[in-house]
Design a protein that fits this description.
Elements lengths: L6 E11 L5 H12 L2 E6 L5 E8 H13 L5 E10 L8 E3 L2
Parallel strand pairs: 2-5
Antiparallel strand pairs: 1-3, 1-4, 2-3
Helix pairs in contact: 1-2
């Protein structure tokens, strides 16, 4: 069983119809609801990139939410990379 208090970091690239459908705002709302910190942004190639820190349980919940996306999105792939936390994020935000 994962350590419920140990902080981790995950970097995600989300592919599909994820721009122009409120995806970043959906990710922001989910991240705040779950209680993780980090950021989300659109990429020039049409994908969305995000990085989040929290417990493994929180991050896995965020990945499940991101994999579903908001109503008008269609997620076709979520690439994830797990890393050691940086501990520099104080909130979750939308960046450019």
């Amino acid at each position: 069983m994962p350590d419920e208090k140990q902080q981790k970091r995950v970097h995600l690239i989300v592919a599909g119809r994820v721009q122009g459908v409120g995806f970043r705002y959906y990710v922001y709302d989910e991240a705040v609801r779950i209680g993780v910190t980090g950021w989300v942004r659109n990429l020039h190639d049409g994908n969305v990139e995000l990085e989040a820190e929290g417990t493994e349980l929180q991050l896995r919940e965020l990945i499940r939410s991101v994999s579903r996306g908001p109503a008008f999105a269609r997620v076709t792939e979520v690439r994830e990379e797990w890393m050691a936390p940086l501990g520099i994020y104080r909130e979750f935000r939308i960046t450019h």
